[in-house]
Design a protein that fits this description.
The structure holds two protein chains of two kinds. By secondary structure, chain A is mostly beta strands. Chain A contains no helices and eleven strands. The chains are: A mainly beta, B mainly beta. At the A-B interface, strand 9 and strand 10 of A face strand 4, strand 5, strand 9 and strand 10 of B.
């Protein structure tokens, strides 16, 4: 079945540094990848949608300069949290899908803690 | 704007009972609807995917139905077990994936 690998699973960084999270589709071509964040006991909130070879589409209220998304290939998307601050601490999850009528497969998530 | 609502927000039932989780959406122009399970601090696990042309899908003790015209889906869990305790999310896909806020399910041993 479709597998999405997300790394790292957890990361602790100092305030002001940048952190990169990778999302890979291992056995299918992901034309679209999605990035979500989830605060404790909250639902998933879509941050951005990225299509391979195109600029990501960010949801309202998400700072594109702070959350850099790159989707350079059909199997890899990265989310870079730049100049991280404690309020960026959250659970980040990626998902990938092929064609629109396919389901979507989720990575296992990355817990980011900024100290 | 698509909105997805899940009722109830939380549910506690004794082990062995059958239960139904509800999901409603406002725009019927969807590609598919998917039910997920999320354990605390974990990523999502896909349970069932229903294409817009389908009415239901079954996997083991789980059955999900879709009534696109009324904007509703249900997830039926038969003979519930303590291991079923988790948050259950439904999500619809049109141009984006829109999630409901989930139902926190607790199965009492």
């Amino acid at each position: 079945g479709a597998v999405v690998s997300q790394h790292p699973s957890w990361v602790i960084c100092k305030s002001g540094t940048s952190v990169k999270i990778e999302c890979r589709s291992l056995d299918f071509q992901a034309t679209t990848m999605f990035w979500y964040r989830q605060f404790p006991k909250q639902s998933l909130m879509l941050m951005a949608t990225s299509n391979e070879g195109s600029k990501a589409t960010y949801e309202q209220g998400v700072e594109k300069d702070k959350f850099l998304i790159n989707h350079a290939s059909l199997t890899l998307s990265t989310l870079t949290v730049t100049s991280a601050h404690p309020e960026d601490s959250s659970f980040y999850i990626c998902s990938a899908s092929g064609k629109p009528n396919y389901g979507y497969t989720f990575g296992s998530g990355t817990r980011l803690t900024v100290v | 704007k698509q909105e997805v609502t899940q009722i109830p927000a939380a549910l506690s039932v004794p082990e062995g009972e059958n239960l139904v989780l509800n999901c409603s959406f406002t725009d019927s122009a969807i590609y598919n609807l998917q039910w997920f399970r999320q354990d605390p601090g974990k990523g999502l696990t896909s349970l069932l995917l229903i294409q817009s042309s389908q009415r239901e899908q079954t996997s083991g003790r789980l059955n999900a139905s879709l009534d696109k015209s009324s904007g509703r889906s249900t997830l039926y869990i038969a003979a519930s077990q303590p291991g079923d305790s988790a948050t259950y999310l439904c999500a619809v896909r049109d141009d984006k994936i829109i999630f409901g806020k989930g139902t926190r399910l607790h199965i009492l041993p």
